[in-house]
Specification:
Shape: elongated
Number of helices: 5
Structural class: mainly alpha
Strand content: 5-15%
Distance between the termini: 18 Å
């Protein structure tokens, strides 16, 4: 379901949160689909359950998950609108483009990389 990258600068809970959000937004996790329990996911990923709990709690506060006491956590319909998330991602893209330009990538090289990413 999720894979962690220990070389990533983002904290583990952030990687889990981003991964689950992506699965919900893309429809890989259907609305009302039950997520693994905190303990089960912690065991699968070999990390502390508190890390999973933090990711679940933040996703719930953002409207991507909901919990039913005694039943577990479930994927919610992606919150509407997702405009804040879209703007956040566009800002990250602009930062990345600026960094690539500092590394002397040409606009053509950047556009080629973007086009390749769109094919995936």
């Amino acid at each position: 379901m999720l894979q962690l990258n220990y070389r990533d600068s983002r904290p583990i809970y952030g990687q889990i949160k981003d991964g689950l959000r992506r699965l919900i937004v893309t429809g890989a996790l259907e609305p009302d689909e039950k997520l693994p329990s905190v303990r089960a996911m912690a065991m699968d990923l070999a990390i502390n359950p508190n890390t999973i709990q933090r990711a679940y709690a933040e996703l719930e506060s953002e409207g991507f998950l909901y919990s039913v006491p005694g039943k577990g956590s479930f994927a919610a319909l992606p919150p509407e609108p997702l405009e804040a998330r879209r703007q956040e991602l566009l800002a990250k893209l602009r930062e990345l483009i600026a960094e690539l330009r500092c590394l002397r990538f040409t606009d053509e090289e950047i556009l080629t990389a973007v086009k390749e990413g769109l094919k995936q």
